[in-house]
Description:
Elements: H1 5-14, E1 22-25, H2 30-45, E2 50-56, H3 63-77, E3 81-85, H4 95-111, E4 117-119, H5 124-136, H6 141-144, E5 150-153, E6 156-159, H7 167-176, H8 193-208, H9 212-240, E7 247-249, H10 250-254, H11 258-272, H12 279-287, E8 297-301, E9 304-309, E10 312-316, E11 327-330, E12 336-338, E13 341-343, E14 345-348, E15 357-361, E16 367-370, E17 374-377, H13 378-385, H14 389-392, E18 396-400, E19 403-409, E20 414-418, E21 423-426
Parallel strand pairs: 1-2, 1-4, 2-3, 4-6
Antiparallel strand pairs: 5-6, 7-10, 8-9, 9-10, 11-15, 12-13, 14-21, 15-18, 16-17, 18-19, 19-20
Helix pairs in contact: 1-2, 2-3, 5-8, 5-9, 9-11
Amino acid sequence: xxxxxxxxxxxxxxxxxxxxxxxxxxxxxxxxxxxxxxxxxxxxxxxxxxxxxxxxxxxxxxxxxxxxxxxxxxxxxxxxxxxxxxxxxxxxxxxxxxxxxxxxxxxxxxxxxxxxxxxxxxxxxxxxxxxxxxxxxxxxxxxxxxxxxxxxxxxxxxxxxxxxxxxxxxxxxxxxxxxxxxxxxxxxxxxxxxxxxxxxxxxxxxxxxxxxxxxxxxxxxxxxxxxxxxxxxxxxxxxxxxxxxxxxxxxxxxxxxxxxxxxxxxxxxxxxxxxxxxxxxxxxxxxxxxxxxxxxxxxxxxxxxxxxxxxxxxxxxxxxxxxxxxxxxxxxxxxxxxxxxxxxxxxxxxxxxxxxxxxxxxxxxxxxxxxxxxxxxxxxxxxxxxxxxxxxxxxxxxxxxxxxxxxxxxxxxxxxxxxxxxxxxxxxxxxxx
Length: 433
């Protein structure tokens, strides 16, 4: 006999400091309806602010019925309900399920404030399905670890209090409480991979191995533990290579075994908030690490890219260049808005300067008169300053009339070079109201 469900929820609630709001992602199905009911009971005995959040995807005719059920349940429990209507965009090729998940999490971020907790209702059988799907896709340890019981996400706390509980136990508790819920008709459609596993595969496994779902979930937990240890190892390697996840010394990286290089690159991408490179892209990148020094090595994937330059592997988000011909008038004092973002910088010229200032993209061939150095070609100057080639296309040239007088990195919000007699100041970059 497992622990009482109410005790599990009470323990989960105890992890939220008093006064902090707990949200329940409420779809209207059995799992989330029961989770909200148990959460309401716990909050009556151990007071915490409790709210429910329903995401209306609008993907099927029953969507309005789901919303109506959530409203009725929350009214009966005395729990405030927020409804987020989303549009699911599948144009980027990630599929309906992936696009719906992205829209759902965007809704979570809009409603759940930083510092608050969001409860998700996945259970042990869901975890077993997740592990099987990951294995069938050929995933590594991280994929086989399935869903974490708790994690920090965008300064919010995500918890899955029911992750160790079977679907059968949830059904029994719902029956005991005479709980009603809305059944999603799409859950019966076997053309979805997860539904096929749920209806055709796991029941057959359960006939032969009665504890199959529990065993698979335990395997996922062991994979999660192994993934944590691998993250520790990657952190140790990163510190040994200087501690900068966006800039790894190539020669030192090549001294690691191939699996550790692979692990470290993925770890660094995670630290930087970049999408992880697909396996083939990652292997292509690692194969090019020992390219000759002057090679233009670039490997890109959706949400990230890697470049090898001057003996270092650079991991970064894709950086579009400034639009050709972009320019804007500037008074030298107001925050400067560029296609790469706004930055708080100021620029003042010699007392006898009277020309108008314009910020613009580089045209090529610009020369800047530097104090004590005479006129310097910007291309050579950028090489001397060590500005990576991929950053040069987004730099802003400030001109007085037609004369270049300053060079600005708008993303870093800093002046790279100032002409003789010119003075510039800069603050931390960021959006300017």
